[in-house]
Design a protein that fits this description.
Layout: H1 5-8, E1 16-22, E2 25-31, E3 40-44, E4 47-52, E5 55-60, E6 67-71, E7 74-78
Antiparallel strand pairs: 1-2, 2-7, 3-4, 4-5, 6-7
C-alpha cells in the first residue's frame, strides 16, 4: 500500500510517517508526536480528516485501506 502523496507532505520533524509491509498486508503508521496524544479522526467517504495538536490534516485514503484507527497520537491505516 502506498502512502498518499498528501500524507507524505506531513512527514517532518514533529510528524513521522512509516510503512510496514507484512506477508498478509501492509500498515501505514503516522506518529503525530507527544504533543498530539489525543487526536480526533473523521472519515468522509474516502477522505480522512485528522485534528492533532490544533492542526488539521486532510488526505485521501488508499483504496486498499481496510481499517483506520487513531490512538495515543498515532494514526494507523491497515490493508
Amino acid at each position: 500500500m502506498k502512502v498518499p502523496s498528501s500524507l507524505k507532505n506531513v512527514d517532518r520533524d514533529d510528524v513521522v510517517v512509516r510503512t510496514f509491509d507484512y506477508d498478509d498486508g501492509s500498515v501505514i503508521a503516522v506518529d503525530f508526536g507527544n504533543s498530539a496524544a489525543d487526536i480526533s479522526m473523521d472519515i468522509l467517504g474516502s477522505t480522512a480528516i485528522i485534528l492533532a495538536d490544533g492542526e488539521q490534516y486532510e488526505f485521501d485514503l488508499p483504496p486498499e485501506a481496510s481499517d483506520v484507527t487513531a490512538r495515543n497520537g498515532i494514526l494507523t491505516i491497515e490493508e
